């Protein structure tokens, strides 16, 4: 059989293939040749064949039949064989393969080989892909080698130990003795790997962490020497001595100083020194500075040092290198809560980053900008952010719009400014605004009483320009429905009032109803707005006509509304003015924390108190005279969890607000007796809050029909799916004999739906 | 979710050309063959659409890729989100400079015809998902010694 072709030959041949099919054919031919060569157990060419196989594997072709051959190569005495064998093992023999463990013995022998390069190969393979079993078997060998004075091997074995610890954390103790004098090494490479090992051990075990805290002074000294020492050519990078080692030491210091005041203090000076003395002209220096900043922010550093760190980040923001701007923004975002004032000083630079070309920088700059908005800078910041909103990519618009609304709500300097800002967002990014903003905006507008005329005018004008952005259209229609009378009477104070007739307004609203651009939700808004205008405008007949047309609309929602409005005209005309009158000021939803009622559909069992979820432990009620009565709240028992259904109308965002008539046709939830024993009766009644139907109001009626007072009555509601409070204290009082106590419990419908 | 909390720093190192051919794939974590293939394709897709106005860092699944383009080759290191981006950028550059020195003005073909030697260079500079040796002179010395054993 002719000698198998050389590796170079094969590579050259394969590269001449012009199509994928041609390549595949060549590969198959060669694989077949290799397979027969393997079958012949040819020692001479095994290495060459496996090398070729590995090349083909790198191109993406299967090479499993070569696995055992790799093992044979590892077992060979020739270095070249071993080398390819181990490479093959690393590429083909990960721990999922059955033959993986067969390597263990070979590796064990090679760890004790006389040639350091063979030992190195074994260590490398073990350290890169040794399985847990293999690590367990060979940990002893690794530990032995840790004591070697051969620096080439020390570096490899130290990292190999790191791998063993990662795979089999229980063995960490075993390596403790070997760490005794790790840091007294002079050799940089060994020192480097030793620091990595220490870092790994400290990160994994709090005991190790406390044990190694005593090394802080030594680490500080080493770092100091690195900075002060002169030119050391071997580890120099752009004039800085061994930046990689510096970075690793800084990281270890971070872990050691993290929750420890003494250690943090001990490293204070050196951190300041590194921060001020490091060259910043190249990326290398900045890498060290960055690690220093991360360390300063994480340990218990004094405030002066923290300010220094933030100033470094601020300088980073001005750097030409976008990588550096990026890491600065990332870190500033993490610290903006804790060091708010210091970060504020760099606000203008951060805002400039909104104009950066890189998407990830823009995003961070945006998040950071929102975090920095406060009462003092709101006007300036909002100008920048609105400009950003105009020009940014669509992926940002939704988040930016939400951020603007939130910030405006918190810090608006005046109502007029607030409305203007909202208008700006709706008109420039109207289609990206989140659905839940619409009801919030409506509420805001309602509550700004003196701005009603101005608002409806501006919204009307916006509608004339553009009816494609649904949130804008929805808010506008609602406002026109509500304040249309102000619009036609030209009462606006803030700006020049426009001249518009009732018919023009109705034209616009009807236009929305027929336009293809309007979604069903929007049409609902428009129809209801038209209806509301029947008590504000005089052209009632026109409105009646529109309403009756839609009584036969295909859209069921629209049809239902139209039919009900029709009924309002015909049979309940006496109620119409009252129903459609101006909305009162809405209370901001007074939810008691982000609680939710468990909702199941269709079950309104009045007396059954099942728990669907494992009940949380209740706080023991205070000492009570009638103790047995309150046992169910007293800590042993099940806490009653209320199962309710709230009327499940298709929740059109904000549509519910307008659906005052909805309540007329719905039956609502019947009152329910939750508990009735031994004279204590607890009843729940449910209704929608008026004016804000997004809130369900649950009234708890607790009555005491006994001859004795019930003192220290504690009522808590347990809700299963919640962030902060799992038990809500709702009612704590004294229920006098023969009396009744009521308490309200508000719940936001929106969260339930 | 699998990748979190394993304590490894470097998950993998990749060298790919613009067309997507892998010139080196060093894995420090267990992946199936098809997972590896998928990762290679994803990294390639993510990295080749970026140009000079982007940073050298990409958020990728639960971690991040630090990469740099040298001529037609992309050198990518996949690290944890908490790792120092700038330091690993230096690490890549260090590695490339060694390759350059070892192969005397390295080009892609050198990496193709001597692929097993490239792995040797990687193994001299990285181990167990960590940077091992950073001194270029030392690494080159070792490489020459190893070469003499062949």
TrEMBL record, chain A:
Q: Indicate what this protein is called per its UniProt record.
A: AP-1 complex subunit gamma
- Domain spans labelled GAE: 667-753
Q: What membrane topology is annotated for this entry?
A: Peripheral membrane protein
Where is the protein situated, by its record's location annotation?
A: Cytoplasmic vesicle membrane; Endomembrane system; Golgi apparatus
| Glycosyltransferase is among the record's keywords | no
Q: Provide the alphabetized UniProt keywords.
A: Cytoplasmic vesicle, Golgi apparatus, Membrane, Protein transport, Transport
GO process annotations (BP): intracellular protein transport; vesicle-mediated transport
Q: Name one GO cellular component term.
A: AP-1 adaptor complex
In which organism is this protein found? Myripristis murdjan (pinecone soldierfish)
Family as reported in the entry's similarity comment = Belongs to the adaptor complexes large subunit family.
Predominant location: membrane
Automatic annotation (TrEMBL), chain B:
The chain positions of domain AP complex mu/sigma subunit read 9-149
Q: Which GO biological process entries does UniProt record here?
A: clathrin-dependent endocytosis; habituation; intracellular protein transport; psychomotor behavior
Q: How does it sit in the membrane?
A: Peripheral membrane protein
Q: Which UniProt keywords apply?
A: Cell membrane, Coated pit, Endocytosis, Membrane, Protein transport, Transport
GO MF term (any one): clathrin adaptor activity
The record's comment on protein family reads: Belongs to the adaptor complexes small subunit family.
By what name is this protein known?
A: AP complex subunit sigma
């Amino acid at each position: 059989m002719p000698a198998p072709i050389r590796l170079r030959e094969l590579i050259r041949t394969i590269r001449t293939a012009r199509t994928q099919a041609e390549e595949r054919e060549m590969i198959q031919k060669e694989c077949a040749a290799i397979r027969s060569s393997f079958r012949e157990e040819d020692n001479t060419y095994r290495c060459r064949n496996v090398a070729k196989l590995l090349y083909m594997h790198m191109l993406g072709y299967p090479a499993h039949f070569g696995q055992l051959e790799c093992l044979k190569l590892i077992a060979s005495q020739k270095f070249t064989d071993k080398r390819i064998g181990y490479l093959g093992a690393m590429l083909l023999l990960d721990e999922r393969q059955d033959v993986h463990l067969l390597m263990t013995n070979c590796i064990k022998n090679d760890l004790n080989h006389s040639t350091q390069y063979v030992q190195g190969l074994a260590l490398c393979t073990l350290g890169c892909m040794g399985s847990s079993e293999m690590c367990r078997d060979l940990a002893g060998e690794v530990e032995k080698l840790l004591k070697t004075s051969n620096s080439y091997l020390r570096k490899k074995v130290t990292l190999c130990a790191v791998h063993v610890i990662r795979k089999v954390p229980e063995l960490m103790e075993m390596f403790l003795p070997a760490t005794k004098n790790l840091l007294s090494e002079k050799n940089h490479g060994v020192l480097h790997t030793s620091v990595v090992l220490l870092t790994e051990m400290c990160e994994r075990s709090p005991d190790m962490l406390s044990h190694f805290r005593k090394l802080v002074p030594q680490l500080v000294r080493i770092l100091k020497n690195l900075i002060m020492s002169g030119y050391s050519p071997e580890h120099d990078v752009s004039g800085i001595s061994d930046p990689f080692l510096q970075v690793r030491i800084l990281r270890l210091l971070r872990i050691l100083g993290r929750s420890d005041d003494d250690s943090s203090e001990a490293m204070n000076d050196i951190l300041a020194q590194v921060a001020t003395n490091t060259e910043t002209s190249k990326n290398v220096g900045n890498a060290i500075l960055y690690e220093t900043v991360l360390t300063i922010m994480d340990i218990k550093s004094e405030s002066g040092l923290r300010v220094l760190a933030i100033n470094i980040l601020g300088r980073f923001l001005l750097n030409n290198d976008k990588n550096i701007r990026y890491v600065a923004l990332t870190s500033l975002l993490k610290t903006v809560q804790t060091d708010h004032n210091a970060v504020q000083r760099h606000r203008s630079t951060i805002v400039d980053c909104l104009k950066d070309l890189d998407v990830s920088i823009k995003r961070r700059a945006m998040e950071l900008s929102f975090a920095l908005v406060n009462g003092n800078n709101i006007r300036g910041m909002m100008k920048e952010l609105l400009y950003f909103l105009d020009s940014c990519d669509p992926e940002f618009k939704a988040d930016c719009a939400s951020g603007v609304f939130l910030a405006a709500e918190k810090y608006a300097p005046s109502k007029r400014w607030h409305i203007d800002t909202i208008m700006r967002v709706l008109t420039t990014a109207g289609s990206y605004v989140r659905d839940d903003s619409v009801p919030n905006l409506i509420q805001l507008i309602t509550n700004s009483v003196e701005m009603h005329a101005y608002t409806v005018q501006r919204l009307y004008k916006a509608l004339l320009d553009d009816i494609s952005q649904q949130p804008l259209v929805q808010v506008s229609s609602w406002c026109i429905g509500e304040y249309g009378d102000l619009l036609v009477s030209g009462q606006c104070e803030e700006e020049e009032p426009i001249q518009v007739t009732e018919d023009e307004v109705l034209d616009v609203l009807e236009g929305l109803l027929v336009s293809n651009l309007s979604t069903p939700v929007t049409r609902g808004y428009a129809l209801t707005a038209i209806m509301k205008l029947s008590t504000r405008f005089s052209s009632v007949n026109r409105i009646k006509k529109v309403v009756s047309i839609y009584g036969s609309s295909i859209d069921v929602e629209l049809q239902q509304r139209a039919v009900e409005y029709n009924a309002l005209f015909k049979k309940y005309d006496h109620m119409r003015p009252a129903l459609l009158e101006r909305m009162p000021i809405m209370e901001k939803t007074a939810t008691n924390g982000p609680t939710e009622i468990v909702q199941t559909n269709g079950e309104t069992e009045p007396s059954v108190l099942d728990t669907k979820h494992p009940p949380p432990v209740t706080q023991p009620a205070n000492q009570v005279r009638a103790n047995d009565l309150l046992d169910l709240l007293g800590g042993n028992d099940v806490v009653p969890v209320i199962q309710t259904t709230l009327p499940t109308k298709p929740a059109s965002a904000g549509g519910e607000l307008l659906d005052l008539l909805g309540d007329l046709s719905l039956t609502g939830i019947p009152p329910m007796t939750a508990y009735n024993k031994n004279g204590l009766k607890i009843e729940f009644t449910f209704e929608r809050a008026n004016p804000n139907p997004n809130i369900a109001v649950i009234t708890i009626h607790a009555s005491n029909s006994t001859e004795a007072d019930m003192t220290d009555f504690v009522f808590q509601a347990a809700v299963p799916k919640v962030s902060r409070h799992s038990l809500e204290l709702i009612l704590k009082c004294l229920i006098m004999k023969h009396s009744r106590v009521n308490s309200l419990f508000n719940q936001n419908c929106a969260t339930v739906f | 979710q699998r990748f979190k909390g394993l304590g490894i720093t470097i998950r993998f190192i990749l060298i790919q050309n613009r067309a997507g051919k892998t010139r080196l794939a060093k894995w420090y974590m267990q992946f199936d063959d098809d997972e590896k293939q998928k990762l290679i394709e994803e990294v390639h897709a993510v990295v080749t659409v970026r140009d000079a106005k982007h940073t050298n860092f990409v958020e990728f699944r639960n971690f991040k890729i630090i990469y740099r383009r040298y001529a037609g080759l992309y050198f990518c290191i996949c690290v944890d989100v908490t790792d120092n981006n700038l330091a690993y950028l230096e690490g890549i550059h260090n590695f490339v400079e060694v390759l350059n020195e070892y192969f005397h003005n390295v080009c892609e073909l050198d990496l193709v015809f001597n692929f097993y030697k490239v792995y040797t260079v990687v193994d001299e500079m990285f181990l167990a998902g960590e940077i091992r040796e950073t001194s270029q002179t030392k690494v080159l010395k070792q490489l020459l010694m190893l070469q003499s054993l062949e």
